[in-house]
Structures are given as structure tokens and as C-alpha cells.
Write a structure and sequence with these properties.
Blueprint (H helix, E strand, L loop, with lengths): L1 H6 L2 H34 L15 H11 L10 H17 L8 E4 L2 E4 L8 H9 L2 H11 L3 H32 L4 H11 L7 H17 L11 H4 L9 H26 L13 H23 L7 H33 L1
Antiparallel strand pairs: 1-2
Helix pairs in contact: 2-11, 2-12, 3-11, 4-6, 4-11, 6-7, 7-9, 7-13, 9-11, 9-13, 11-12
């Protein structure tokens, strides 16, 4: 195995990692649609999907085939170009952000292969820049549909994401200040060297709570799913969509959930670090990362079937009057602490 990897060109290894990571992301997004129904059924003492395949495991495949063969409709008066473009804008940025997540390191003999598509010094900036583009899919999808319900859903999505994007960025900025780097790999290394995950530091704990709340709003998840609130907006910004374009919106949402779960595990829980075992084998590190990310994916579903939906004015009040001031104060305090510590040393 070692001799084989030594002879394999780097570009082939890179292509293999791209296929594995993106394939895993798409597969996870598809399985999340099943997990959403299975977990909710478990919480409500129901069976959930159980007809297609053993335990209903092939239900996502059946759903995909159904979407492929359904008729695609475009409303009269819609902007056809933007109507077709919006689902791609919602899905593609969410998929691309997984590229800089450090899932772990594969070790074969003396060779270490980073299990991530790209190692960027500005990985955080890359994620924020791309992640902010997904809101255009919701806005354009709502506006281009020529429907008042869709337009209201797009407007809600833009207001919601702008409000909580600030809190999300400030929470990440706290971790950047503590680690001294915008590189996600360096943030993981800093936690390993300190022997303490960021979530167990005072500043990191506050940032973690704010980041988790903001991630629910950023991904349009309950209790902040106002962009697609069925009782008020029929279906929100994607009301007029059908077939694969409709599926792309949900694929983008589940991909964004997966990326947020991975980012939460990376920033606050040491990424692939194994608790109390700094020198754990590389495969246990990857397993630990997947378990941490899996917990946060479960949290997305758990919260949906536990908490009631907020009112829209409560969402705005929480974002602008509660979360944002706390996030700003946390950044100012950690900045002063880091500057004082650096000056003292």
C-alpha cells in the first residue's frame, strides 16, 4: 500500500479526495432527508418511511427518481433565466464550502495525506464569501417566480440571513483571535496543542452558543424557517418550483446543514481530535470528526421537532437586540484579552 501511494501522482490523489468528499456530502444530504423523517417518527412514536428497501433506506433514491421524472413548470410571467438559475445559486455555494474543511489526515507509512480538498491560509474567508452567496438563490427564486408568496419568502430569507450573518461572523472572529489564524487546519492544530477545545474556554463557549443559533437561521431551519413558513407563505420562496429544481433547493439546504455541522465541530470541538487521546490513530480521528458532525446534524432535527416556531419580529429582535450585542461584546473582550496577553509576553 505504501509503495502504491508513493507512485501515485498527486493530482490523482486530489481527484480521489474530491470525488470522495463531494460524494460523501451529496450522500449525506440525501440521507438527511430520510433521517429527518425517521427521527421525527421516532420522537412521535411512528414508523416513518419503511417500504422502499430494508428499513426504508432506499427512500432517498426513490425520491430522487420521482423528482427526475416529474414535470417542470414555469409560472406565467416569471423571469425564466433567473427562475432556472436560482436553485443552482442556492445549492452550489453550499457544496463548494466543504472544500476547506479539515476532516483529518490519512497516514500511510511516512506519508501524510490531508483529507481535505484544499488547505487555504484564508479558509475562513473562503467559507464566508461563498456561504453568503446562497441567499441570492432564495431571493432570486422568490422574485423570479412572479408570486407574492414566493417574493415574501425571498424577502424574509434576505432579512434573516443578513441579521444572523453578522452574529455568525463575529462568533467565528472570536475563534480566529484565539487561534491567531484564518486557516481551519491551524485552528484545529491550536486546539490540539493547547489541550483544550475552544468550546471549553469562556470566550469560545459564548461564541459556540451564538454560532449554533446563527447556524439555524443561516440554514433556514426551524425555529427560524420563516423563508418557507408553510402556514403563512404556502411554501415560501420555492412555492412555484417543481421536479429537480425544487429538489436542488432542499439539496442546498441539507448541504448547508452538513457544512455548518462540520464547521461547528472544527471551530469549537477540535475537528478530528480524539478526546483525551492526542496521539490517536488517524482513522479514529476521522471517525471522531464524523461523530461530532453527526451530532450537530442530529441537533438540527432534534430542535425542529422540539421547539415552536418564533414570530418574525421575535426573530429580528433576537438577532439585532440580543445576539448581535453579545457577539460584539465577546469580540471586544477577547480582542482586549489577546492584546493584553501578547503585550505581557
Amino acid at each position: 500500500m505504501e509503495a502504491f501511494l508513493a507512485d501515485v501522482p498527486e493530482w490523482i490523489l486530489w481527484v480521489a479526495k474530491v470525488a470522495l468528499i463531494f460524494g460523501g456530502l451529496i450522500g449525506t444530504a440525501a440521507l438527511m432527508s430520510l433521517a429527518e423523517r425517521k427521527v421525527s417518527a421516532w420522537m412521535q412514536f411512528r414508523h416513518g418511511p419503511n417500504r422502499v428497501g430494508p428499513f426504508g433506506l432506499l427512500q432517498p433514491l426513490a425520491d430522487g427518481i420521482k423528482f427526475i421524472f416529474k414535470e417542470e413548470l414555469i409560472p406565467e410571467g416569471a423571469n425564466k433565466f433567473l427562475f432556472r438559475l436560482a436553485p443552482a445559486l442556492a445549492a452550489i455555494p453550499s457544496m463548494m464550502t466543504i472544500a476547506v474543511i479539515p476532516i483529518g489526515t490519512i497516514v500511510v507509512g511516512e506519508k501524510k495525506i490531508p483529507f481535505s480538498i484544499a488547505q487555504l491560509d484564508l479558509g475562513i474567508m473562503y467559507m464566508l464569501a461563498l456561504g453568503g452567496l446562497s441567499v441570492y438563490g432564495a431571493i432570486l427564486g422568490g422574485w423570479a417566480s412572479n408570486s407574492k408568496y414566493s417574493l415574501l419568502g425571498g424577502l424574509r430569507a434576505s432579512a434573516q440571513m443578513i441579521s444572523y450573518e453578522l452574529t455568525l461572523i463575529l462568533s467565528i472572529l472570536v475563534i480566529v483571535a484565539l487561534s491567531g489564524s484564518l486557516d481551519l487546519g491551524a485552528i484545529v492544530t491550536a486546539q490540539r496543542e493547547n489541550g483544550l477545545w475552544n468550546v471549553f474556554t469562556p470566550f469560545g463557549a459564548v461564541a459556540f452558543v451564538l454560532f449554533t443559533i446563527a447556524s439555524f437561521a443561516e440554514t433556514n431551519r426551524h425555529p427560524f424557517d420563516f423563508a418557507e413558513c408553510e402556514p403563512e407563505l404556502v411554501g415560501g420562496f420555492h412555492t412555484e418550483y417543481s421536479a429537480m429544481r425544487f429538489a436542488l433547493f432542499f439539496l442546498g439546504e441539507y448541504c448547508a446543514m452538513t457544512v455548518m455541522a462540520c464547521l461547528n465541530a472544527t471551530l469549537f470541538f477540535g475537528g478530528p481530535s480524539v478526546p483525551l487521546w492526542p496521539e490517536a490513530p488517524w482513522f479514529l480521528g476521522i471517525l471522531a470528526f464524523l461523530l461530532k458532525a453527526g451530532f450537530f446534524l442530529f441537533l438540527f432535527i432534534w430542535v425542529r421537532w422540539t421547539l415552536p416556531r418564533f414570530r418574525f419580529d421575535q426573530l429580528m429582535r433576537l438577532g439585532w437586540k440580543v445576539a448581535l450585542p453579545i457577539a460584539l461584546a465577546n469580540v471586544l473582550v477577547v480582542g482586549a484579552w489577546v492584546a493584553f496577553t501578547a503585550k505581557g509576553s
